[in-house]
């Protein structure tokens, strides 16, 4: 046996131990003994995952802070309201006025939405406003001041809420004060960036194009009439004050909702399309005629589904609507249908570009050249529709040459309607079962209506029921030009929702009148 000296054994042990330690732990290349170790195998650093977790803590903490302590109670005129900021992908402002419903304004684009809930009316202020209507003149300034003060208080409280929420959640997750304070600071920076985005994209005209949800019968009083908005901006501002008074009366005495009072200088046209044999449509049409005091109805086709004589009885309620009914043939309407309607006294059938003056407006239209009740592919396709549109455009030029220009052209298919570009201020169509608005290259506005029958029996074919859509078009009686329209959207089968949104045909500036050649400001989707 070989004997190893103890001193040599200790020297060998000291040399081996550091090597074993280096196998399990790698060190950063650095200076001095302060170099920190890197994780070994299985402990890979993922900075993106750490950053994602921090962002989740910031967002959830800020949201919880706004939800718990981010509300402000503020008086606005005679009303007591609660203002709150909520996370949102589209931004905007939502004003909840129970029991009337809600007003949605496209006021800004930011990841936060302003919610204003009308909690109750102050009895003393409300009664004082009802007893002394002359005080309405100063109501607008009072409401403006109240909203400014409430918004300022909301901004301060929201800043404190997001910092407190994100810091508290960061402390609970990371248990390190420095990391928690970083989360609170980043939450405050995120809210500040959202505020700057809202300020940069603020749209003061959003109040002129509100979207109203709730009771359909109160919608006209909420959005006002076209004439006062377009030509009398100051009068429209007073209408907002009148709305406050009406709501006050509704709360105070639970009386009936305020009735819509039409402007005698405005022609109101109800545009319907693609009823597709839905009998419920006639009750809706009759209700809209009465509520909006409609002067004339325009139907852009597909009233029937198969166009056979057995379906003709479905058209009889048109006689009882009490207003003129302008109609063009769709691809589900036959000549049998057209001849049946021609025998009704209040129906004006448009075909082959022939023009008729109805309710102060001159209409001309072209029936659909194709008849496809079985939903087969049309032999002519778009070529046949474009040819029909060319014939309609030629008839419009002839009318203008005779010094009897047409105000509104009507076709069923959008491809035919587009051929009238430059020959008429407005062309109406349907066929695609969804609402749309488009300014054509040569200045003609194309208004496409959705299905007023909820696509008929096709409403039950999809996953969700199709909505029922119609529009109220407001024309100036002197210039016979479109001023504004209300897009009406009712929930489909089994639904009870109602929505009315106002759209202006021309930009509006305080103290200025309409310009028929102005650019479009519609928020509706293009067809």
TrEMBL record:
<dbReference type="InterPro" id="IPR029052">
    <property type="entry name" value="Metallo-depent_PP-like"/>
</dbReference>
<feature type="transmembrane region" description="Helical">
    <location>
        <begin position="154"/>
        <end position="174"/>
    </location>
</feature>
<keyword id="KW-1133">Transmembrane helix</keyword>
<dbReference type="GO" id="GO:0009245">
    <property type="term" value="P:lipid A biosynthetic process"/>
</dbReference>
<dbReference type="GO" id="GO:0046872">
    <property type="term" value="F:metal ion binding"/>
</dbReference>
<keyword id="KW-0479">Metal-binding</keyword>
<feature type="compositionally biased region" description="Basic residues">
    <location>
        <begin position="19"/>
        <end position="29"/>
    </location>
</feature>
<keyword id="KW-0472">Membrane</keyword>
<feature type="transmembrane region" description="Helical">
    <location>
        <begin position="181"/>
        <end position="202"/>
    </location>
</feature>
<feature type="region of interest" description="Disordered">
    <location>
        <begin position="505"/>
        <end position="527"/>
    </location>
</feature>
<dbReference type="Pfam" id="PF00149">
    <property type="entry name" value="Metallophos"/>
</dbReference>
<feature type="compositionally biased region" description="Low complexity">
    <location>
        <begin position="30"/>
        <end position="41"/>
    </location>
</feature>
<dbReference type="GO" id="GO:0016020">
    <property type="term" value="C:membrane"/>
</dbReference>
<feature type="region of interest" description="Disordered">
    <location>
        <begin position="19"/>
        <end position="41"/>
    </location>
</feature>
<protein>
    <recommendedName>
        <fullName>Calcineurin-like phosphoesterase domain-containing protein</fullName>
    </recommendedName>
</protein>
<dbReference type="InterPro" id="IPR004843">
    <property type="entry name" value="Calcineurin-like_PHP"/>
</dbReference>
<dbReference type="InterPro" id="IPR051158">
    <property type="entry name" value="Metallophosphoesterase_sf"/>
</dbReference>
<dbReference type="GO" id="GO:0008758">
    <property type="term" value="F:UDP-2,3-diacylglucosamine hydrolase activity"/>
</dbReference>
<feature type="compositionally biased region" description="Low complexity">
    <location>
        <begin position="510"/>
        <end position="527"/>
    </location>
</feature>
<keyword id="KW-0812">Transmembrane</keyword>
<keyword id="KW-0378">Hydrolase</keyword>
<feature type="domain" description="Calcineurin-like phosphoesterase">
    <location>
        <begin position="267"/>
        <end position="434"/>
    </location>
</feature>
<feature type="transmembrane region" description="Helical">
    <location>
        <begin position="48"/>
        <end position="69"/>
    </location>
</feature>
């Amino acid at each position: 046996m070989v004997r190893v000296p103890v001193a040599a054994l200790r020297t060998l042990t000291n040399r081996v131990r550091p090597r074993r330690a280096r196998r399990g732990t790698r060190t950063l290349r650095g200076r001095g003994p302060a170099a920190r170790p890197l994780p070994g195998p299985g402990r890979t650093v993922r900075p993106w995952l750490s950053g994602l977790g921090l962002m989740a803590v910031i967002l959830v903490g800020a949201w919880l802070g706004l939800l718990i302590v981010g509300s402000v109670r503020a008086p606005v005129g005679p009303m007591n309201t609660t203002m709150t900021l909520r996370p949102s992908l589209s931004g905007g402002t939502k004003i909840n006025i129970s029991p009337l419903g809600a007003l949605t304004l496209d006021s800004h684009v930011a990841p936060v939405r302003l919610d204003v809930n009308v909690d109750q009316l102050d009895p003393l202020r409300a009664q004082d406003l009802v007893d002394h209507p002359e005080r309405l003149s100063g109501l607008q300034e009072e409401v403006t001041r109240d909203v400014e003060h409430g918004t300022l208080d909301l901004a301060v409280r929201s800043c404190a809420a997001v910092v407190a929420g994100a810091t508290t959640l960061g402390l609970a997750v990371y248990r390190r004060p420095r990391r928690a304070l970083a989360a609170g600071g980043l939450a405050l920076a995120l809210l500040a960036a959202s505020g700057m985005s809202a300020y940069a994209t603020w749209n003061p005209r959003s109040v002129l194009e509100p979207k109203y949800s709730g009771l359909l019968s109160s919608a006209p009083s909420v959005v006002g009439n076209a004439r006062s908005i377009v030509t009398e901006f100051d009068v429209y501002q007073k209408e907002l004050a009148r709305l406050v008074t009406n709501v006050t009366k509704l709360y105070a005495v639970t009386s009936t909702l305020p009735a819509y009072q039409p402007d005698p200088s405005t022609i109101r046209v109800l545009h319907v399309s693609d009823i597709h044999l839905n009998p419920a449509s006639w009750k809706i049409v009759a209700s809209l005629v009465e509520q909006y005091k409609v002067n004339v109805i325009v139907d852009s086709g597909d009233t029937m589904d198969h166009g056979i004589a057995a379906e003709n009885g479905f058209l009889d309620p048109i006689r009882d609507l009490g207003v003129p009914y302008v109609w063009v043939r769709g691809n589900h309407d036959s000549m049998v249908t057209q001849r049946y309607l021609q025998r009704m006294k209040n129906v004006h059938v448009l075909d082959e570009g022939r023009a008729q003056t109805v309710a102060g407006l001159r209409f001309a239209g072209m029936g659909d050249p194709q008849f496809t009740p079985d939903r087969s592919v049309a032999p002519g396709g778009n070529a046949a529709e474009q040819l029909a549109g060319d014939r309609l455009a030629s008839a419009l030029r002839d009318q203008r040459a005779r010094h009897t220009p047409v105000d509104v052209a009507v076709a069923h298919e959008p491809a035919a309607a587009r051929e009238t570009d430059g020959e008429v201020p407005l062309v109406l169509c349907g066929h695609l079962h969804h609402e749309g608005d488009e300014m054509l290259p040569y200045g003609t506005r194309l208004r496409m209506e959705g299905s007023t029958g909820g696509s008929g029996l096709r409403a039950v074919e999809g996953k969700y029921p199709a909505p029922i859509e119609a529009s109220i078009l407001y024309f100036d009686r002197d210039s016979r030009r479109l001023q504004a329209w209300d897009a009406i959207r009712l929930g489909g089968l089994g639904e009870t929702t109602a929505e009315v949104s106002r759209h202006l045909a021309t930009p509006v500036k305080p103290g200025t009148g309409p310009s028929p050649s102005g650019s479009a400001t519609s928020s509706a989707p293009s067809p």
